[in-house]
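mind reviewing this fold:
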Amino acid sequence: MSGESMELTTILGVLIGLGGILAGHWMEGGHFTSLLQLAAAIIVFGGTAGSVIVSHTREDLREALQYLKKCFVKPDESQKAEIALQINEAAQLVRKESVLSLERRINQFENPFMKDVFRFVVDGVDPATIREVFENEIFLIERRRLRAAKVWSDAGGYAPTIGILGAVLGLIHVMANLSDTSALGQGIAVAFVATIYGVGSANLFFIPIANKIKQRIQVEMEVREMIVEGAVSIATGLNPYIVDEKIKGFVGRGPESEASL
């Protein structure tokens, strides 16, 4: 991931959560090796993966993996501010010249969605129509992308149940081999460790990752909403100062101005 910085909160969260549980286990006299059970891992993670694959399409699974990577990469926090500046400059340009003057500015926009929205402005499309078209597009994009989060939240729902299934299988193995005392320990270990794997992976990884993906998607949609709001304001003919004030609600006013509220 050249040129990309790691998202420390995701990494620290996983390490602190896992480390706290392992440390507590060790302080109670437990051994880390007792938590390493290959059979339990195969049952829980194999079963969970199978359930998730059955529940979702290939496209949803691919997007879920893409967003998993994003959760470990720090987002570009300057993007929203840069787009807000471009909207403000566009409003000033229209104020000084005309809406048609935006045509040469559109090609300078790096955001594809922003290009599409402002082409509607240049073409003289009614502001209400611009809002309706692109707010509907935002809604559909958000709904599609949230399916990536649902992949991980579903995994968080399946894992504990599969863990219980692993525990039952382990106990069945124990009951079937009561005469073989050497197999009792292994069977009981699989039974309890499978439950730990299921509940632990759900609450330490799957569900938190799903929530983080939802947060990322919300930020992405806020950028799109800001673009639509700015474009509609410009198409309506609002003063650049008013446009800037409306956009500030999306970007944030900074700690000093927020402290005064």
About this structure: The chain has one domain: 8-251.
